[in-house]
Amino acid sequence: MLRYALLRIFGAIPTLLLVIALAFLMVHAAPGGPFDAERVLPPEIEENIARAYHLDESLPQQFIRYLGGLVRGDFGPSYRYRDYSVSELIGNALPVSMQLGVLAMLLAIVAGVAAGLTAALSKNSFIDRLVTGIAMTGISVPVFVVAPVMVLVFAVYLQWLPASWTGGTSISRLILPVVALALPQIAYIARLTRASMIGVLSSDYVRTARSQGLRTISIIRYHALKPAMLPLLSYMGPAIAGILTGSVVVEEIFGIPGIGQFFIRGALNRDYTLVLGIVIFYATLLILLNLVVDLLYGILDPRIRGR
Amino acid sequence: MSLLEVKDLSIRYADSAKPVVQNLSFSIEAGQSLGMVGESGAGKTQTAMAVMGLLPANAITSGSIRFDGQEFLGAAPDVLNRYRACRIAMVFQDPLTALNPYVRIGDQLRRILLEHKICKPPEARERTLVMLQRVGLPDAERQYGVFPHELSGGMRQRAMIGAALLGEPDLLVADEPTTALDVTVQAQILGLLRELRSQSNSALFLITHDLGVVAGNCDRILMMDNGRLLEEGPAKEIFAAPSNERTAKLIAAARRIDMPTKTSPLPDGEAPIVEVDNLSVSFRERYGSGKRQLHAVWPLSFKVAPRETLAIVGESGSGKTSLVKAILGLIPMRSGTVSYAGKKLPGLVQSRPNNIRRQLQMVFQDPVASLNPAMRVADIVAEPIIIHEPKKKKAEREQDVSKMLRHVGLGMELRERFPHELSGGQAQRVAIARALVIRPKVLICDEAVAALDGTIQGDILQLLQAEQADSGLSLIFITHDLSVVRQISHRVLVLYMGRVCEIATNEQIFKRPLHPYTKALIQSVPVPDPNAKPDDVPLAGEVSSILNPPAGCPFHPRCEYAVARCSEQVPALQSVVGGSVACHRANELDLSY
Ligand SMILES: Nc1ncnc2c1ncn2[C@@H]1O[C@H](COP(=O)(O)OP(=O)(O)OP(=O)(O)O)[C@@H](O)[C@H]1O
Ligand code: SF4
Ligand SMILES: [Mg+2]
Questions:
Q1: Do residues A277 and A75 lie in contact, with contact meaning Cβ atoms separated by under 8 Å?
Q2: If DSSP codes are grouped into helix, strand and coil, which group holds residue B309?
Q3: CA nearest A100: which of A267, A279, A255?
Q4: What is the three-class DSSP state of B316?
Q5: Would you say B581 and B502 are in contact if contact means Cβ atoms under 8 Å apart?
Q6: How far apart are CA B165 and CA B173, in angstroms?
Q7: Which chain B residues contact residue A6 at CB under 8 A?
Q8: B210 vs B526: CA distance, rounded Å
Q9: DSSP H helical segments within B229-312, as ranges?
Q10: In the predicted structure, residue B359 carries a pLDDT above the cut 80
Q11: Is the CB of A302 less than 8 angstroms away from the CB of B101?
Q12: Pocket test for ligand 2, best of B494, B584, B591 (most atoms within 8 A of CB)
């Protein structure tokens, strides 16, 4: 197991390098430069700026310099927010985004599993159809449609909750964004839980447990819950990715000063280093979390554990 | 009042008109054993499920199932739960899927005791350990904590039986409890069931397709066919004088290992068509933190003559499939050569010339899986002709295909079907037609009839023998079923842990085996004769791990004749009249029976 963990960790390094290289190339391939928008500068000054930011070096040289910084946790200076480094910007925005992401993830798991289990246990009933129907809608309607509708209903008409970050208390302002962010994941998790629980309940070993006179509640608790939850664990990787990308949209809609918002600003302002830094930060986070999920799976599934 | 009384039971599914069980009535008295026999689809499992109250929700039932006076059909789950485990319990066919792969064996058993409040938690653990020991898991402390996949098939079935007996039921329902197991292990499990029943006096409802299994284990027999009862009565009477025509046919179709072989004698002195010389196969396996060689087949040699059938037998894991795969060049050999008609062949199939490849064909165990699901029957059979005789005209090809299909007994109406629209027997015929259509000289069958019913097995074996008589085909026939071996082979090769125990003529193997393992294999086969009661288990223990083979004779840990030398020195294969044998004591032992 330890061997496997170490192998996986070292295996992740090439993937990460590839992601960094691709992101670096893509950002540099984009037309226009970070200082294009400002008024025309005399060539000497432009040269000076370029030298200060090492833009005069060749691309490989810049890449090596950038990698060197990364190893020290330095994502370089921001081109736009000139007094800040990219690391500082990410560091400042991270707590807000974390709060949002972690809460949305928890909500998605709790609500999704509860809905999925209820549906599975009353298969083909009205409740089952209701859950399946809502989940289908939740999956097909994108966040940028759901979020404004929620704002309209709960903030504008009912006036129960604030419409934006600046307008509410530290708790009330979180509710709408967290729900909007969690909704599609609730839907996915509910569907997944339902399908996997139904599969487990029709398995041979559950039939054996029934032949042994176990009540449904005991069957679920001692025989079905763990195998039914394992597919959910493997979905955690994609779910985290979904929450990360979703947060970019949600933060923009609700005006939340998180990483997502910086990302959009960065992209609009051609703030290369900021965009690059966020992409790499998120990619690393995703790879790490996926690794944790994989290792957990290995620990929980006895058939994999032995190897 | 009977313990179990089934009256006019019918089971139907909403989506099909024909009932799967029709007007079935029978009863089981306390302490009695009833065997239900029938071919696939006879409705045996459906009956067992109905008795346990485990039919799926869309099953429509009528009639009555009374257990000790209580009606089970339509009873509420908590009424059934009061009876399950403590009064009536079940053992399922495949212990790998029937046990929960995510829960430790001991916990699965203990849960039954706790659920039915048979005892308190600390005592439940104790009782589970005692039960594991009783069913033959001697290292119970360790085996309490393992997961099902860490046990062998036989050990898993022992655990399953332990689970069923924990509540000390009055009736044990066992649906094909030994079908997934090797003959030697089957004999062990049946012996265990007999022993446990003699201690507890519980009744047994044993379901099987194998008349040999019921003959030695049941007082009464119930024959089923197509959802209907054919006849029911004391085992001895039914075997001696079946009153129903179909029953008589089923009993006649049961091949008996103690009957003479049906093969035609071979002409002497013909040059061998296939010659295997010093062939061995090994795989590199992870073992602990390093890698090591796993010897699937140790160097061995044999020859197959034209028109000969060589059977290869051995328990699962003995290396049968690795051996034939290496012969066909599907996996690399570690050493040795394969010659065809006197010419040495390149090791791997890709480098063998096409005209030789076509002479060596293979039929696999699972007929449906080995056929391309997207092709129609006629195209499947035509494909080898297109590959090996590309110049053949389309009309001629069509003719060949039609002739071949007729030859294997498949009607024209099946030509346009897809594999999933065929029964198991039909699919196996298609696989055989595909192999034979290019007229190979050698056909290798890997458990080719294992998945089929007795009567269909008989048809396919006959077909192969007829083909052999017509065209001089040589057969290499891998099987774990010794009654098949008895019927169709000229010579038999017995493998154990990748080593040859014995190669000899059919007559010699079955009448005068020279190797203790051969004898144990033969004696493990249940004989369909209720007068031949099996009392003891011919071979105890299980095959040793191939990763950690015992020193000396690989069979010595299980051999009742083992002496000191056996654990020190690997016995060499020595020639004897009619064959060869690898046993230190071959010359002194008399194993005939
Ligand atoms: N859920 C189901 N829906 C519809 N038909 C079914 C269902 N389960 C079984 N059957 C049908 O019922 C018939 C009897 O099946 P059953 O499993 O009892 O046979 P069996 O005698 O146990 O056969 P085998 O020896 O292959 O186990 C078969 O034709 C089968 O296809
Ligand atoms: S060599 Fe010894 S252990 Fe092996 S089969 Fe012969 S008697 Fe038994
Ligand atoms: Mg069955």
A1: yes
A2: strand
A3: A255
A4: coil
A5: yes
A6: 11
A7: none
A8: 9
A9: 235-240, 245-253
A10: yes
A11: yes
A12: B584
Helix (H) or strand (E) segment spanning residue A96 = helix A86-121
Strand order through the sheet with B290-304: B290-304, B274-287, B335-340, B343-344
Q: What is the ipTM of this complex?
A: 0.80
**Structural tokens at position B571:** 């016995």
| pTM reported for the whole predicted model | 0.81
**CATH 3.90.1150.10 matches A93-257:** no
Q: In DSSP terms, which residues pair with B275 in a beta bridge?
A: B303, B339
Domains of chain A by residue range: 93-257
pLDDT at B104: 94
Q: Which residues of chain B have a CB within 8 Å of the CB of A218?
A: 111, 115
Task: Give A38's pLDDT tier (boundaries 50, 70, 90).
Answer: low
Q: Report pLDDT for A81.
A: 76
Q: Are A224 and A201 in contact (CB under 8 A)?
A: yes
In the block, tokens 């560091």 appear at A91
Residues in chain A with CB shorter than 8 Å from the CB of B103 are: 222-223, 226
Amino acid at A253: I
List, edge to edge, every strand of the sheet that includes B491-496: B360-363, B442-446, B474-478, B309-313, B491-496, B499-505, B579-581, B574-576
Distances (CA, A) of B314 to B22, B511, B560: 40, 18, 18
- Alpha carbons A135 and A112: distance in angstroms, whole number: 9
Quote the tokens at residue A238: 């994609």
Ligand 1 atom closest to Cα of residue B21: 14
What residue's CA is closest to ligand 1, atom 11? B20
When CB atoms are compared, the residue of B81, B112, B289 closest to A215 is B81
Q: Collapse the DSSP code of B581 into the 3-class scheme (helix H, G, I; strand E, B; otherwise coil) and give the result.
A: strand
Q: Does B116 touch chain A (CB under 8 A)?
A: yes
Please tell me what DSSP assigns to residue B462: H
